[in-house]
Each structure stands twice: as structure tokens, then as C-alpha cells.
Amino acid sequence: MKIIFGLGNPGQQYKDNRHNIGYRVLEELANIRGAKLKRSFKLSAYLGEDNIYDKKVLLVKPRTFMNNSGLCVRKVFDKYKPDISDILIIYDDADLALGNIRFRERGSCAGHRGMSSVQSVLRTDEINRLRIGIGTPVCGELSDYVLSDFNHSEKELLDSTIDKSAAACMDWIEQGINFVMSKYNRRGGNSG
User: Fold this and answer.
1) 164 CB contacts (<8 Å, ≥6 apart)?
2) Consecutive 10-residue runs of the chain (192 residues): their mean pLDDT?
3) Which domains, ranges and CATH numbers included, belong to the chain?
């Protein structure tokens, strides 16, 4: 089984925030696959199941808020007991320009509290992740920036980034982490 987690904050007020791009990619992946995301109170998430490339895939949208994402990840791990190499965490990265994406198979959380929470509960930094660029704030606090909405002028690039990221997740399911790192981590991250 492959499990993909899209990180974000639940609630209508956060829906279009930069911090919720992980949610948006997961929702797009569910949409193109026709997988319905259903609420699981026990796992503190919305879950969708699908078979992709003859592999069972679980799509998970945690409802524990970004900074406590690990709580949901732990519950899902306890129930499904996947290999750590069979999970992918999708989240925003303010160090990447909007339109750029990067896969990694290990490393620090680089200050991202959602990823920090996941690494803390899983007790490892060897976790496949897809970091999606949301742009860097010109001024002001990073916390205010990530909780701000994308502006109108970013919409076209945002939509294409979400589409590209969902396609990249499909490649990860079929081909694995080394393939997607080679394909999408080129300069600019605009392959695909």
C-alpha cells in the first residue's frame, strides 16, 4: 500500500492559504482519480482509497491542523502499518518559488512545523516528501505569509503547479522516489 498525506489546516478560513497547497494537491489527485475523500473521526482525517497502477493507494488529508500533522500520521501508521518508503508527505515550501516542486527522500524539516511534527512521531527524517513552492515573503512574518491566500495574479501558475504536482504524485506511485527526484528536481523544477 502507498499512502500520500497532503498537509494543511482544516476549515473554510484556511481553504485558499499558501499553507494549504498540500491539501489542494491531494484534493486534485482524488478528483482526477474519482476517489471520494470521506471523514474518519478515528484517524482525524479525510481518507480516499484507490487502485493506481495495480497498487492500493490511500490518500490522507489530516484534520489535526498543520503543526500537529504527526498526530494523524501516527494514527494512520498504527492502523495500516506501511513501510516508511511507501509514504509521501506533500507540503508547502516558502524557500521555493511558486511553480517549483522538489522531491526528497530524507532530510531535515527546514523549519516547517508540519513536517517537524511528522518526523517527531515517526522518529526519522527518512521520509519521502514533495515540497511545493509557494514563494518567499518580501517582508513581514513568515507565519502571516503562509496563512495568506494566493493572489489573483498567481492563479494561473498556482493551477498549473497543482496539476503538475498531482501528476508527479502519480509518477511517484508508479516509478518511485528516485525516478521523481530525477524528473522533477531539475533546475526550476518545471519538468513534466
Assistant:
1) 101, 190, 192
2) 97 95 97 95 97 94 97 97 97 95 95 95 97 90 93 94 97 97 76 46
3) 2-184 (3.40.50.1470)
pLDDT at 190: 52
Q: Is 112 a catalytic residue?
A: no
Distance CA 155, CA 172 (A): 25
Are residues 182 and 102 in contact, defined by beta-carbon separation less than 8 angstroms?
Answer: no
The residue with cell 503538475 is 164
pTM, whole model, 2 decimals? 0.94
d(CA 127, CA 3): 12
Residue of 19, 74, 102, 164 marked catalytic: 19
Rounded to whole angstroms, the Cα distance separating 170 from 89 reads 13
Residue carrying the nine cell digits 521520509: 127
Spacing of C-alpha 88 from chain mean position: 7
- From the list 137, 172, 138, 124, the residue with the least C-alpha distance to 25 is 172
